[in-house]
Specification:
The protein is α+β, with helices and mostly antiparallel strands and 106 residues long. The chain is built from 3 helices and 5 strands, in the order αβββββαα. Helices cover 50% and strands 18% of the residues. The strands form 2 sheets. A 3-stranded antiparallel beta sheet has the order 1-4-5. A two-stranded antiparallel sheet has the order 2-3.
């Protein structure tokens, strides 16, 4: 897989969350104990990893290591210009909503 810079990763991660919507957004967190991600990659205590709820129970949670998330982002966005454009569009909509709310407060 292609290794990406932190800036590229952060941008593509935001696009993924724009496509996922607030209810199913991925969250970055730090491991307090050892985990195994959805693809069998080990996540050590202190490692940053990514998780997403997919149900009402704590056990209904997807976990991805940084490397697994990077692989997903590469597959989704480096392989499809159209999907990247859709992600950019939804991300802009979210940013516009935030800006509008901020302007209303001021």
């Amino acid at each position: 897989m292609i290794s990406m810079s932190d800036d590229d990763f952060d941008h593509l991660f935001k696009l993924l969350n724009a496509l996922s919507g607030n209810t199913y957004a991925w969250n970055q967190t730090s491991a307090k104990k050892e985990h195994i991600d959805q693809f069998g990659k080990k996540i050590n205590p202190g490692d940053v990893y990514y998780k997403r709820q997919y149900g009402n129970s704590y056990s209904q949670e997807l976990k991805l290591s940084r490397q697994s998330m990077e692989n997903i982002l590469t597959i989704l966005f480096h392989g499809s210009l159209q999907l990247r454009q859709v992600g950019e569009h939804f991300f802009k909509i979210e940013q516009d909503k935030i800006l509008s709310c901020y302007k209303n407060i001021l």
